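Severity: low
Component: inverse-folding endpoint
Summary: output formatting inconsistent between runs
Steps to reproduce: submit the following structure tokens with default settings.
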């Protein structure tokens, strides 16, 4: 039987993290002719991650421009993808998440009638403005994909509500957990040593809908927490989006116990996560990783499409108002009982076997064999 040509696409840092375990698995399958396509939406950040996982893209499209607009990026991606798809003629394209890369891949596949498998399918807030533009991107993928790999039951149920046929949906967990525990301990590299009498807060910010006032309020709350707790240090790898970088450096640049650094390689960021006392983030992936490591997460967003950690009591949706963020952080730093309740750990987003299930499902889709461990799939 001729091998099936499968193209794994990624464009940004989180897609690289979450696609790496799938690429590593597919490499071992002799029925697959695997191709990897990097759109270059994040020129530096995604390549850094893939280097940690020993992955080098077969093709790179190099679409990134400084301070790119959504329109410019979307147009460039669509134009660049068309000849690639015509050239590769894949039996299946696979993309992950909710970025502009993923949405344009889904659309480009639709135009050329190429089956598209969506990883991390079914996340929804129900609000097109939050997160922006990701909620729209997810809905587009939900309409266009042939296979929907949902990380959780609630994600699968969201797809069913949108009339996605049940047989196209599989609950597999999130490959971010495969990635998190996939790097050997010896590869991890602590980027920062905190003084023994201090607690490390690891922070990230980058959401588009928070640019401007909400971002300023989040940063003010963190700055004031550091000023009122002298046993606290913040490590903040600054996202290279100029809208983030400018504001963060202006507002937090000159504080002694706030350490701003360049984006960290994955092996260092996940080492810092393991060292952290708590995590402040508006990132999707970090909301999934921190609970798996038993780190309380303060989510600085108005809505989250990842309610499982909040429901399990290991994350707090703190919003973007100054007072609430300050109060939540203050509570976690002063109330040991409250802290311990949130530091319980648990992994609502997966067990580290998502990539294995995805490859099993692909094998089944192409009639290569029956699923190896059907009982390992959560039934809808
Ligand atoms: C993008 C995704 C967002 C995802 C985030 C992960 C879209 C619209 N947004 O947001 O969903 O959560 O990535 O980090 O798909 N830049 C660099 N070097 C890099 C990467 C970015 O310089 O390696 C700078 C460039 O100036 C670029 C800007 O950041 O124009 C914005 O990048 P873009 O991918 O459009 O948006 P993000 O905010 O990174
Ligand atoms: N990450 C990293 N270095 C950093 C910050 C984050 O490697 O300096 C990783 C993090 O572990 C997670 C992913 O990047 O796996 C999340 O990406 P990001 O927050 O940019 O995007 P989102 O998940 O919000 O789409």
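Observed output (run 2 of 3):
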């Amino acid at each position: 039987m001729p091998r099936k040509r499968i193209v794994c696409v990624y464009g940004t840092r989180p897609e690289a993290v979450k696609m790496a375990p799938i690429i590593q698995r597919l490499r071992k399958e002799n029925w697959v002719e695997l191709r990897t396509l990097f759109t270059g939406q994040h020129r530096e950040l995604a390549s850094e991650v893939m280097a940690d996982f020993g992955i080098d893209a077969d093709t790179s499209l190099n679409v990134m421009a400084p301070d790119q607009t959504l329109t410019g990026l979307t147009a460039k991606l669509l134009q660049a993808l068309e000849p690639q798809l015509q050239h590769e003629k894949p039996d299946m394209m696979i993309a992950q998440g909710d970025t502009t890369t993923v949405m344009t891949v889904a659309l480009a596949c639709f135009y050329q009638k190429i089956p598209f498998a969506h990883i991390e399918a079914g996340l929804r807030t129900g609000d097109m403005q939050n997160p922006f533009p990701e909620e729209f991107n997810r809905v587009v993928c939900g309409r266009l994909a042939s296979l929907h790999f949902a990380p959780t039951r609630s994600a699968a149920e969201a797809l069913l509500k949108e009339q996605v046929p049940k047989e196209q949906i599989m609950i597999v967990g999130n490959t971010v957990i495969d990635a998190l525990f996939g790097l050997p301990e010896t590869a991890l590299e602590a980027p920062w040593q905190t003084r023994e009498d201090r607690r490390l807060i690891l922070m990230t910010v980058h959401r588009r809908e928070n640019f401007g006032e909400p971002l300023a309020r989040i940063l003010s709350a963190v700055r004031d927490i550091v000023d009122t707790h002298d046993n606290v240090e913040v490590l903040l790898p600054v996202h290279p989006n100029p809208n983030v970088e400018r504001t963060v450096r202006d507002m937090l640049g000159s504080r002694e116990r706030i350490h701003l650094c360049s984006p960290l390689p994955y092996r260092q960021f996940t080492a810092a996560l393991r060292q952290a006392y708590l995590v402040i983030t508006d990132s999707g992936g970090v909301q999934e990783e921190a609970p798996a490591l038993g780190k309380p997460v303060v989510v600085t967003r108005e809505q989250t499409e990842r309610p499982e950690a909040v429901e399990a009591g290991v994350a707090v949706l703190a919003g973007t108002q100054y007072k609430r963020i300050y109060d939540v952080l203050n509570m976690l730093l002063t109330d040991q009982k409250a802290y311990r309740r949130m530091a319980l750990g648990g992994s609502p987003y997966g067990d580290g076997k998502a990539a294995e299930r995805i490859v099993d499902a692909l094998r089944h889709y192409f009639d290569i064999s029956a699923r190896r461990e059907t009982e390992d799939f959560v039934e809808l």
